[in-house]
Amino acid sequence: MKGITMNTVIYDPASRINLLEYGIEVPLLDxxxxxxxxxxxxxxxQLELVEIDFPSFTPEExxxxxxxxxVDWLCNHPDKAAWLTWELRAxxxxxxxxxxxxxxxxxxxxxxxxIRMASGTWVGAQTALEKGFSYVLGGGFHHAxxxxxxxxxxxxxxxxxxxxxxxxxxxxxxxxxxxxxHKGDGTAQITQHDPMTGTLSIHxxxxxxxxxxxxxxxxxxxxxxxxxxxxxxxxxxxxxxxKLQEGLIKLKSALPNPDLVIxxxxxxxxxxxxxxxxxxxxxxxxxxxxxxxxxxxTFAKWELPQTWVMAGGYGEFAWEIHSAFLEALxxxxx
Length: 334
Ligand SMILES: [Zn+2]
Description:
Blueprint: E1 6-11, H1 31-43, E2 48-51, H2 59-62, H3 68-76, H4 78-85, H5 107-131, E3 132-136, H6 157-168, E4 174-178, H7 185-191, E5 197-204, H8 219-222, E6 228-232, H9 240-254, E7 260-264, H10 285-301, E8 306-309, H11 319-332
Parallel strand pairs: 1-2, 1-3, 3-8, 4-5, 4-7, 5-6, 7-8
Helix pairs in contact: 1-11, 4-5, 5-6, 10-11
The chain binds zinc ion.
């Protein structure tokens, strides 16, 4: 792959998810994607917008990274899989942020649509291998572990994409650059024994998922180290960029020359993010744009194919971060 030939944004209208339609009250708004699409169609004409049917993952493909028990839940007990992933039941069995009365669609539809959206990351990877860069409107389910969903992440699209790539190219080396504000714990857990995958996660040192109580069975899994972990505390915003740069150099020396880079481009470190558990780091729009453009330029300079997925970003302002990055790419043209 020699450089970037096109800045391509890909999306599948049938994989868009509005959690409120399922009676789930989490501020992960479908309007984030809707506003981006409006902006791209209206004014970002230097970007190539590709509308494509994501193929979804078959149960056999899900088994490449998830264990049998979890795939069985996904296929045969979708309601239970949704309760666990979106944390819909409190310890006493009552509903938590979920009102079945307000649901217009069944949870089994949510499972199906989420797995379809997850496969968009694999489509994004193939596009990046061909054109140098792709931006997927969706994906980034980095908390999903081998044994089950967690933190609004049902299946791990990042690990699945790496596993799919290996079917074509068994020796493929991959980097996962996870800049979502929460640690990329599921990706670290699934890829921990894979010497050909290097993971970098820059995240809140405190708070979810690193503050899980001792008796929570996922606690140990959440603490599996990434190849490079960069934990930051509140007030570290000014050294974020410097730490990220140092971390990338460490990753490069641990696993040089990757065939593919997957950027888990969460916007939830944003100071205007609405999720309380994302408020441990509060970056400005300018700081996050600097982060995103620096990553893009670095991978372009090193001639590494890069696919970006959106990951976390909550509330009515989350779209601004993704938008600022795409707008900057559009302004540059190609
Ligand atoms: Zn997050």
